[in-house]
């Protein structure tokens, strides 16, 4: 009876948050200025990337460094499927586009789905060699995968236009696309986490050998987390391409993975709520602190612009947070697991 009440309370909290997010999306799209909408679009895309990356790295405990590879795949698949043949012939300067590339055309929603599916299928094929190792070795293998994808995008100009990248991608920058996809990603991943598969992922994270001894198929569990994470990273990459309208291999370096790693560690490894909070603080916070790079009047003293000062201040804030919150802002907890949402026990 008590468990049912707790479960009902969790569902009500989650439903309230989803309704609030939908209302905010509508309000922001219709009332905020273009610059603010652009920032929210960017935050929403990185929420998709962060919560999906947290599934494999935080919930399942596999130190993977692959997100930039899957994001690149999603971005290029969406670009190729949405840019028309005439546009490709005009901008492919290094080498004429392959005929099969010219023949590929799809609506944006289908392009996003294909981006996610192709990323997930590649993750499934990579799972066999990748999960033969653990720990630091797993990080090295997945890091290499990201480098390989970037090298391929540079050296196959008939498909990707090489180092010049793809331009004139149809823009789909309204918040209904990005925030809608972010809400779907969060809901799906939370449902995975609180299913029997999610409990198996947490068991693998806590002690993989013990999980195996208890009869959990650890390879299947890790592969499920890896492919689910890759699917949403591919979708996020497609949305990023449609937001920027121009992509190149330089966008998908290890710095993208490192940025996502900072976000999920700051929010708390294993917490989807923490990944969302970390994304808002990092992506929106860095934009808000741009004033630190500009000339300022401090106590009557006029300072010159110091480009990069916001990164110095942001780094100091990260150090302070990590000193006082060793497990991140949320630890492994979700929003509804905080004390303020728990029913107080009656005095005996």
From TrEMBL:
<feature type="transmembrane region" description="Helical">
    <location>
        <begin position="12"/>
        <end position="29"/>
    </location>
</feature>
<feature type="transmembrane region" description="Helical">
    <location>
        <begin position="137"/>
        <end position="155"/>
    </location>
</feature>
<dbReference type="Pfam" id="PF02653">
    <property type="entry name" value="BPD_transp_2"/>
</dbReference>
<keyword id="KW-0472">Membrane</keyword>
<protein>
    <submittedName>
        <fullName>Branched-chain amino acid ABC transporter permease</fullName>
    </submittedName>
</protein>
<dbReference type="GO" id="GO:0005886">
    <property type="term" value="C:plasma membrane"/>
</dbReference>
<feature type="transmembrane region" description="Helical">
    <location>
        <begin position="175"/>
        <end position="194"/>
    </location>
</feature>
<dbReference type="InterPro" id="IPR001851">
    <property type="entry name" value="ABC_transp_permease"/>
</dbReference>
<feature type="transmembrane region" description="Helical">
    <location>
        <begin position="224"/>
        <end position="245"/>
    </location>
</feature>
<feature type="transmembrane region" description="Helical">
    <location>
        <begin position="108"/>
        <end position="130"/>
    </location>
</feature>
<keyword id="KW-1003">Cell membrane</keyword>
<feature type="transmembrane region" description="Helical">
    <location>
        <begin position="35"/>
        <end position="56"/>
    </location>
</feature>
<dbReference type="GO" id="GO:0015658">
    <property type="term" value="F:branched-chain amino acid transmembrane transporter activity"/>
</dbReference>
<feature type="transmembrane region" description="Helical">
    <location>
        <begin position="311"/>
        <end position="329"/>
    </location>
</feature>
<keyword id="KW-1133">Transmembrane helix</keyword>
<feature type="transmembrane region" description="Helical">
    <location>
        <begin position="68"/>
        <end position="88"/>
    </location>
</feature>
<dbReference type="InterPro" id="IPR043428">
    <property type="entry name" value="LivM-like"/>
</dbReference>
<keyword id="KW-0812">Transmembrane</keyword>
